From TrEMBL, chains A, B:
Broadest EC class assigned to this enzyme: transferase
Pfam families given in the database record: ATP-gua_Ptrans (PF00217)
Matches recorded under InterPro entries: Arg_Kinase (IPR023660), ATP-guanido_PTrfase (IPR000749), ATP-guanido_PTrfase_AS (IPR022415), ATP-guanido_PTrfase_cat (IPR022414), Gln_synth/guanido_kin_cat_dom (IPR014746)
Species per Swiss-Prot/TrEMBL record: Dehalobacterium formicoaceticum
Protein name as catalogued: Protein-arginine kinase
Annotated residues for binding of ATP: 27-31, 93, 127, 178-182, 209-214
Taxonomy, superkingdom: Bacteria
Family of the protein in this entry: Belongs to the ATP:guanido phosphotransferase family.
Regulation of this protein's activity per its record: Appears to be allosterically activated by the binding of pArg-containing polypeptides to the pArg-binding pocket localized in the C-terminal domain of McsB.
Sequence ranges assigned to domain Phosphagen kinase C-terminal in this UniProt record: 24-256
One MF term in the entry's GO annotations: protein arginine kinase activity
PANTHER family in alphabetical order: ARGININE KINASE 1-RELATED, ARGININE OR CREATINE KINASE
Coiled-coil portions: none
Protein's job: Catalyzes the specific phosphorylation of arginine residues in proteins.
């Protein structure tokens, strides 16, 4: 099983941190749910059928010409990797936490740069995902759509003229699309302006969540905004609506940062430098504290209060300091205390590599 | 009025940090209370008499041969210096906080290196003080005694054959001596072994206090141990008793540090490096937090967990980060916030000067 270096490096395309509004938008994601016509949904699928679907996908990525058009993909059968590796895929946002726990013939195909992937036999037969850095929702949609078209050349999807694509969960019926952006919003959190903004999202058909999807807490001031409604709208409607709301949130975050910088620059500088001081020297650090301090540091970089540190350190460490990647570094299962030590070492190495921070004034 | 550089540098002899057990004993102090025979105690002294006493001291330090024997002294009349300068003398432990607030003709004579001084017209006519770095109680007593002898060549002190030296406050009657050591006891604090030790001090005639004397809290894990009893003992008894108890406390502190190092090295290393990280990067720091972190850092230096930082940075910053020295640096009265900024800058400068810390492993 060739799987490239997916399990050896924490970087993905989306952690590159390059693109429009990369100071606020960490990543853009589009996910399409698709099911094969006249085939039971995964939760009542026989093992035989599961294998059939997996084989269909394998055939497609091995089709002559596919690679030239879509790039190199790796096929990763879930029952052939261990729990640690599954967790790494979760931390890279390539599979869902639920999928990592599930049994049976399931798998994921992943493009070399990890921007494009398909979960096979999760809640739906296929979950096509495109995950790009920064504000690139439309590009993500174009790429996911392209993959969808390729699948449709071979497979016939369950589709209803009235309802659209049929999915295992009724909330996905219609476009089968979930589009989302992950935003770094320290300004809105610090100034408490965020509460009001987030509380109105439901009214305009959007949902706000923490970094690792439904039910997860917002850690490191990271928020995911996604569409709630998939029915009665076109894909372009969804992308345009989410884009327009996101641009407004970006605007408000910039205002909040400027306000904070104007009213509390001293306080902010202290906060940013303390974060740098601790991150570059601590010997033990919990995931929660690391995310908090990395968020402070990233804000300081974005506001030019600290120089000489690559802002993408933040994006990269978001993945590299998660559990599975630390366990891999520590060669297997470990006590939380040891994990906190390896996390601290990983952060120190990454942050001080570039000759440390320099003062702005 | 020549006053050397007493008000321009925070360093004193006692902040040098050199001498026996300097890793635990910050300073040793001996103070002798003396009053002129047949002269009312200071609280009922006329201005005329106050001036008379001040002049007597001035005459002595200007006597031919005095300088050769005892060194260069400066005479500082309290009514000719401002409140900030008085506070600086308090922070250097050259005068008491009460003395800084008092009115009338009062003054202090201070040896160039600040190891020897005499407060004039405080609670008693003279308070001879010798303040040395590290565990040098006996040397401090010898030097204070020498100064006492010189004064007695010219002045006749109030002395009772039965009681000994008579003093304004009855608790000082007898030897008129207060001997004390300032100890850095993070090990006894962290392991909570200190409570028991300190609580038994009263039973053996000793008192434990914070860094700035009676009623002051122990900040930065600094504790002052002094004799309670001045009557019915010789000066040598007092010095020997305090020395012997201090040596036991030093022993227990060393044990506590070793225990902590053995049982919680990881935790200790993290604590030390975080202290270094914050001290060398924070932009605002309160006096209390600074003392706490400086104590952590000092412990790390003493336990060789961090290298390349001069341990006396701690002693020096204990004075340099106090209010008056910061205000002087900031050119006058200032808001607490600004004071915290200047404190942080002072610490950063001092700590990172020597090329920062290096890892021990």
């Amino acid at each position: 099983m060739d799987r490239g270096d997916i399990f050896s490096r924490p970087d993905s395309k989306w952690t590159e941190g390059k693109g429009p509004d990369a100071d606020i938008v960490i990543s853009s994601r589009v996910r399409l749910a698709r099911n094969i016509k006249n085939m039971p949904f995964p939760y009542m699928l026989s093992e035989e059928k599961e294998q059939e679907i997996l084989n269909a996908i394998k055939d497609i990525i091995e089709t002559p010409g596919f690679r030239e058009k879509m790039g190199t993909f790796y096929y990763i059968p879930l029952n052939e990797i261990d729990q640690l590796e599954k967790q790494m895929l979760v931390e890279k946002h390539l599979i869902s936490p639920q999928f990592a726990q599930s049994k049976g013939y399931k798998g994921v195909i992943v493009r070399e740069d990890e921007s494009l992937s398909i979960m096979v036999n999760e809640e739906d037969h296929f979950r096509i995902q495109c995950l790009l850095p920064a504000m690139q929702l439309n590009d993500a949609w174009v790429l996911a759509n392209q993959m969808d078209d390729i699948l449709e050349q071979t497979l016939e999807f369950a589709f209803d003229k009235e309802k659209g694509y049929l999915t295992s969960c009724p909330t996905n019926v219609g476009t089968g699309m979930r589009a989302s952006v992950m935003l770094h919003l320290p300004g809105l959190v610090f100034t408490r302006m965020g509460y009001q903004i987030f509380s109105t999202m439901g009214q305009i058909g959007l949902t706000v969540r923490g970094m690792y999807g439904e039910g997860s807490e917002a850690s490191g001031n990271l928020f995911q905004i996604s569409n709630q409604v998939t029915l009665g709208l076109t894909e372009e409607d969804i992308i345009n609506h989410l884009t327009s709301v996101t641009l407004q949130v970006i605007d408000q975050e910039r205002n909040a940062r400027n306000l904070f910088l104007k009213e509390g620059k001293d306080q902010l500088e202290d906060r940013v430098w303390r974060a740098y001081g601790i991150l570059s020297h601590a010997r033990n650090i919990s995931s929660q504290e690391a995310m908090k301090l990395l968020s402070d540091l990233r804000l300081g970089i974005d506001l030019n209060l600290i120089q000489g540190i690559d802002p993408t350190v933040f994006n990269n460490l978001m993945v590299a300091t998660q559990m599975a990647f630390l366990q891999q570094k520590g060669k297997g299962e470990m006590q939380p205390h040891l994990r906190d030590q390896i996390r601290a070492a990983t952060i120190r190495e990454k942050i001080t590599k570039k000759n440390g921070g320099h003062e702005s004034c």
